[in-house]
Amino acid sequence: MVRAWRLVGDQLTDNPTSPDQSVSLDELAKLGVEYFQVDADTREENDFYKNLKKERGYSYSDLITVSPDTLPNYEQKVKSFFEEHLHTDEEIRFILDGSGFFDVRDLDDNWIRIEVVKNDLVILPAGIYHRFALDNKDYIRVTRLFVGEPVWTPHNRPSDDMQARRNYLEKLNIPNAVH
């Protein structure tokens, strides 16, 4: 099951600072973050996974392994993943092996850290500010899903004037906010 917690200040630890800092799936859902647990080893035979892909129109997927041994320009790529950004499309990541963290901004502009491990499928909505970091294992293997042709463009913060950001805030009933 997913673990998520609020980061205090610039804290970048792997564990919550205290039990009262934990964040529930309901709290993540209020931000538009969706989480599912699917057996990674049998995913292609899994009805839930097949239906999710069909219902949401995920027509393209690829596989990425992030580790010093497998990813060209590893240091540069990992650094760019950790820069706060948003996308104009939702970001769908299905963890096949390894582990890491997605950090997302809450409505008060604080970070929530979401630990992802094998069998976690996380969907971040278009327009949410986020970043990704590996944990101390320096390894994750992920299927990335897309609707149509993949869009890889991160828009670093600030990108508050982008339509995807405005649409995201509007869905959260924050029509004129700048976060």
From TrEMBL:
Listed SUPFAM superfamilies: RmlC-like cupins
Q: Tell me which EC number(s) this protein carries.
A: 1.13.11.54, 1.13.11.53
Which of this chain's residues are annotated to bind Ni(2+)? 85, 87, 91, 130
Keywords of the record, alphabetical order, are: Amino-acid biosynthesis, Cytoplasm, Dioxygenase, Iron, Metal-binding, Methionine biosynthesis, Nickel, Nucleus, Oxidoreductase
State its role.
Answer: Catalyzes 2 different reactions between oxygen and the acireductone 1,2-dihydroxy-3-keto-5-methylthiopentene (DHK-MTPene) depending upon the metal bound in the active site. Fe-containing acireductone dioxygenase (Fe-ARD) produces formate and 2-keto-4-methylthiobutyrate (KMTB), the alpha-ketoacid precursor of methionine in the methionine recycle pathway. Ni-containing acireductone dioxygenase (Ni-ARD) produces methylthiopropionate, carbon monoxide and formate, and does not lie on the methionine recycle pathway.
Would you tell me the protein name for this molecule? Acireductone dioxygenase
Binding-site positions, Fe(2+): 85, 87, 91, 130
- One GO cellular component term: cytoplasm
Main localization category: membrane
Q: Which family does it belong to?
A: Belongs to the acireductone dioxygenase (ARD) family.
- Which GO terms are recorded in the biological process aspect for this UniProt protein? L-methionine salvage from methylthioadenosine
User: Which superkingdom is the protein from?
Assistant: Eukaryota
What pathway is this protein said to act in by its record? Answer: Amino-acid biosynthesis; L-methionine biosynthesis via salvage pathway; L-methionine from S-methyl-5-thio-alpha-D-ribose 1-phosphate: step 5/6
Q: What is the lineage of its organism?
A: Eukaryota, Metazoa, Chordata, Tunicata, Ascidiacea
Which CDD domains does the record associate with it?
cupin_ARD
State the membrane topology.
Peripheral membrane protein
Keyword Transcription regulation, does the record have it? no
As cofactor, the record names:
Fe(2+); Ni(2+)
The record's free-text note on cofactor binding: Binds either 1 Fe or Ni cation per monomer. Iron-binding promotes an acireductone dioxygenase reaction producing 2-keto-4-methylthiobutyrate, while nickel-binding promotes an acireductone dioxygenase reaction producing 3-(methylsulfanyl)propanoate.
| Catalyzed reaction equations | 1,2-dihydroxy-5-(methylsulfanyl)pent-1-en-3-one + O2 = 3-(methylsulfanyl)propanoate + CO + formate + 2 H(+); 1,2-dihydroxy-5-(methylsulfanyl)pent-1-en-3-one + O2 = 4-methylsulfanyl-2-oxobutanoate + formate + 2 H(+)
Q: Name one GO molecular function term.
A: iron ion binding
